Amino acid sequence: MKGTASLTNKTTRAIVWSFTELMANYGIQFIIQIVLARLLVPEHFGVFGMILVFIAISNSIVDSGFTQALIRDQQTTQEDYSTVFFFNLGISIILYGILFISSKGISVFFEEPQLIEIIRVLSIVIIINAFAIIQRVMLMKKIDFRTITKISVISSVISGTLTIIVAVLGFGVWSLVVNMIAVQLIQTLLLIIYNRWLPSFIFNYQSFKRFFSFGSKLLLSGLIDTFYNNLYFIIIGKSFSITQLGYYTNAVKVRDLASQSLASTVQRVTYPVLSSIHEDEKRIEQGFKKIIKISAFINFPLLTGLAAIGNPIFLILFGEKWMPSVIYFQLLCFAGMLYPLHALNLNILQVKGRSDLFLRLEIIKKGLLTILIVLSFIFKLGIIGLICAAVINSYLSLLINMYYSAREISYSSWEQLKDIIPSFGISLFMGTTVYAIAPFLTENHFFLLLCQIMIGILVYVGLSKLLKVKELEIIYELIISILLKRKT
Question: Angle 445-466/413-437 helices, nearest 10 degrees?
């Protein structure tokens, strides 16, 4: 019992610090996004969105699934870390060279000449990221998210300030390039300073083979997932106007502020914790069930609420010129509300060492998405149809993830659905109410936003209390315990 309590406290502290880090990081980035949206035009975001897929895929290749493999391993040596470090670094240099040479071809494909120089400069973040992977893994294995929080906040503030200065000076899309490079460079330097790990000049083939046998399947599944997550930037950039891509890019960034903060927190913290007890079936099942219910209770109302207040948010924060982004943002929220549940179910497969199944599921889910995308083009549904395809795929994918994770632990798909349906139903009712009452409230956008938020909170908390949803009490007790510890 003492070990369980210790693990629970450690996990709670880790979740709090991780969520604080991500909220602070995303919060600062969000403020930067608001300022940049005011200073730049949608076309600048469109140009930047065209190359995100290439950077994201390159970073996935550099990682090659080694992050998850190292976190899962309980007896990692200096030789293991050094081997993975030199592999990451070597691959990053090769990928930078490939992108440097391919920049002309990418520019011709999108019919955007300025992409050549942007790609050649921005791709340097791939090499910078390679220096940070092992440092971050070591802190995550220690569940030291307090240090990671400090690093993220400091790097976001410094890089954000620099980015705004560059944008004010009139450098346009280059301010977005500066932001990505600066935040990664500062994070890497701080990780090295705080963690104080240096590699040994060793490359052990057996060590590499051991980790790669597990990580290779995660690499392939990660590449598929990363490609499809960024595929819309390519499709919209090629098939529609650069302005439309700018609207979509901004909508994705705003949606990710909420959806990715919780999903990333849940995934990053629960994976090392569950990995440490992966042989204890009962503890994994109990912990997994609690986290699923709490994640749904928090994320469902957050994303449905944001969708409901999308109009005043964009009008107040970004201005009239960004209003076409609202409908994209609202639809994306309904896909993003499931992200933490995706992450949790997939974590179970990784904890159980089923990287083969992880890969198979990615192929199945992305096959479904491909069919949906093709159908949206056949019926000429435009960007709205493409986003609806992503929303439908998110729900179908969750059912698939639930089914296969249930085969690894004693927590069936039906049980999981029963646990999250109350939060889903209350959230939809709350979101519908908040959206429907907007025309009957004040015409002042600031007061409208405040009224909608207050009504949303009252409806959600009130219904949760009326229906005796246990997660409300758990969240309340957690907040009180954290505040008391802070006071002490």
Answer: 140
DSSP 201: S
Q: How far is the C-alpha of 303 from the C-alpha of 431, rounded, in Å? A: 9
- Tokens for 333? 């929220």
Rounded distance, CA 404 to CA 69, Å? 20
Give the pLDDT confidence of 205-260 residue by residue, as tens digits: 999 998 888 888 888 888 998 899 899 999 999 999 999 999 999 999 889 877 76
201: exposed, middle or buried (Cβ count in 10 Å: 0-12, 13-18, 19+) = exposed
Query: Mean pLDDT for the chain?
Result: 88
DSSP three-state, residue 131: helix
Instruction: Give the chain's end-to-end CA distance (angstroms, integer).
Output: 25
Q: What is the CA radius of gyration of the chain?
A: 22
DSSP state of 361: H
Q: At what angle do helices 2-39 and 145-168 cross, to 10 degrees?
A: 0
Q: Is residue 197 classed exposed, middle or buried when 0-12, 13-18 and 19+ CB atoms within 10 A define those classes?
A: middle
pLDDT digits (tens, 9 = 90+) for 251-296: 998 898 777 666 666 666 666 666 665 566 777 788 788 888 988 9
Model confidence over 54-111: pLDDT tens digits?
Answer: 999 999 999 988 888 898 887 889 999 999 999 999 999 999 999 999 999 999 999 9
Q: CB of 373 within 8 A of CB of 235? A: yes
436: alpha, beta or left? (left if phi > 0; alpha if psi -120 to 50): alpha
pLDDT tens-digit series, residues 96-116: 999 999 999 999 999 999 999
Nearest Cα residue to 274 out of 1, 59, 10, 2? 10
Element (H, E) at 81: helix 78-110
Dist CA 227 CA 285 (whole Å): 32
Our CA dihedral for 224, 230, 236, 242, rounded to 10 degrees, sits at -150
DSSP assignments along 145-159, one per residue: HHHHHHHHHHHHHHH
State if pTM tops 0.70.
yes
Inter-residue contact 219 to 64 (CB < 8 Å): yes
Residues 350/211, Cβ–Cβ less than 8 Å: no
Distance of alpha carbon 223 from alpha carbon 65, whole angstroms: 10
Give the C-alpha separation, 212 to 85, whole Å.
13
